[in-house]
Amino acid sequence: MSHARHRSFDLLAALPLAALPLGLALHACGSAAPRPEDPSPTPRVVTLSIVGTNDLHGHIEALPAFSGYLASLRAARASDGGGVVLLDGGDMFQGTLESNLVEGAPIVEAYAALGYDAVTIGNHEFDYGPVGERATPRDRGDDPRGALRARIAEAPFPFLSANLLERASGARAELGTTEHPVLPTVTLERAGVRLGVIGVTTEQTLTTTIAANVADLAMRPLLDAITEHASALRATGVDLVLVAAHAGGRCDHFADAHDLSSCRPDEEIMRLAEGLPPGAVDVIVAGHTHQGMAHFVHDVAILESFSYGRAFGRVDVAFDLTSRRVVGREIFAPTDLCRDAACASTTYESRPIAPDARVATTTARAIAHAAEIRAQAVGVTLSAEVSRSGDRESALGNLFTDLMRAARPQADVALYNGGGLRADLPAGPLVYGAFYEALPFDNRFALVRMEARDLAQMLVRNASRDTSFLSISGLRATLRCDGPTLVASLAREDGRALRDDEPITVVVSDFLATGGDGVLSEVREREGALTLEDDPPIREAMIAILRARSGTVDPHALFDAAHPRVALPSERPVRCE
């Protein structure tokens, strides 16, 4: 199995060949083995492999294969006197039955067996809320971050956060426990190289998790936090500064690590790297956007490896122990993991993929725990795949909003955010596990009272931004350009137009109702506008509706591209000239 990679060797030509580790010497100048009678001196230049993962979202089934790749790489570095550093860019837990049933505990156990050096906190690390079934605090004494604290206390590796603050005091937030605090940085040593690691979380966090669980937090800008801590780490004498950032980007091509033409320049991690002082940071392990990166941006090596355990990232750093400086770097394109039977014939670093027994045992135990629940029949058959999209209308978004309105018939309209659509539903008899992965969040219903003009303004804002698409049920919306202004007209499903001042009730998730995605930021503050429900979770109410209906669901009846529920004059974001 071949693995495409990029090469960038800074200052290698200035070094004698004998000073380089064998692998790097071969790439730079061809083969040059030492004479058999020569002693084997301690290498002056060592290779550090920085490995990054991100956005596992509970997909523990990917970890046994990953452990095999990691073992091969560690063996390769051990043989040449180098070392491996393993970091995660956040969003480890939320997303699957295997993880969610015990609030991420199997992931911590598996990460411990994998030997992670540090992880950063992602926005979805806050989703579980208090320990137990509740996703948000309801009673006095409920800790809105109790489940996260429990995982931090169990972990033998550090959780990092340099930019999450207490809203009231402006001090760094205390997210861990007295015995297991969350720190802004951690220092490591590998093969004689001193490393400092900084952890940061996307500035979007407060609007991309359940607001009640982070209501007392504030965000420090990524650039400010990293710049300050990188300077402090350099002052202590660290040789390399690494960042585990739950903030990401997107690049579509990986043939040339210096070619940024396929990268989106306005993504959070791109803006961060461009703003960093030269030489402040060597490597960033990114996340959050579920995309790929293996590129140098402003001379910072950035890795991001999609999501759900699909792949991992790697950059090799050649470091001269005598001069205490980096003399070469090589970025590898994201390495897709082998799956199941394919692993038997897969090699990495010229070694077979052999899963770690401890990781395999933890994975098998979590899968077995969830198996019976996962296999429960929902009672309907899907005639074709029900597909999702986060940024445009989709069959899954329309199905979800239809089910929400059926579950709460007092509502005129249902809205659901595209970022909450987490997996397609496969064709055939629908089982609980598949529906759960499409909607893994334990959000509850909320009813919001507003006027039709309020909803029209929300849809205009949503169409004008490159943000999560709002799926809708109960109304049809037509958006058009009136000169330079985008306007929306609303009609009920029978075709009757709504007056601007017509009162309507909208059912949404408590995520949106409490500030998520900024959709209801104005309306929810009005007195008497908002009603939050306790139970059941939206997912369970939807499944109850499907079980009562039974029969077959046709995705083509849910979404017709020629007759969308939200008709736009152009692709989002819409710009009227």
Walk me through the structure.
It contains 14 helices and 27 strands. It is α/β, with parallel strands linked by helices and 577 residues long. It has a six-stranded mixed β-sheet. It has a six-stranded mixed β-sheet with strand order 6-7-9-10-12-11, covered by helices on one side. A five-stranded mixed β-sheet has the order 21-18-24-20-25. The longest helix is centred in the first third of the chain and has 18 residues, at 63-80.
Quick take:
With 577 residues, the protein is an alpha/beta fold. The chain folds into 2 domains: 12-26 and 50-366, 4-Layer Sandwich (Purple Acid Phosphatase, chain A, domain 2); 376-567, 5'-Nucleotidase, C-terminal domain (5'-nucleotidase,  domain 2, Alpha-Beta Complex).
CATH fold category name of the largest domain: Purple Acid Phosphatase, chain A, domain 2
Q: Quaternary status of these chains?
A: single chain
How many discrete domains?
2
Specify the helix fraction band: 10-25%
Q: Structural class from helices and strands?
A: alpha/beta
- Tally of DSSP helical segments: 14
CATH class of the largest domain: Alpha Beta
State the total count of DSSP E strands.
27
Main sheet, how many strands, which sense, barrel?
Answer: 6 strands, mixed
Mind telling me which CATH architecture of the largest domain this is?
A: 4-Layer Sandwich
Parts with pLDDT < 50 across at least 5 consecutive residues: 1-37
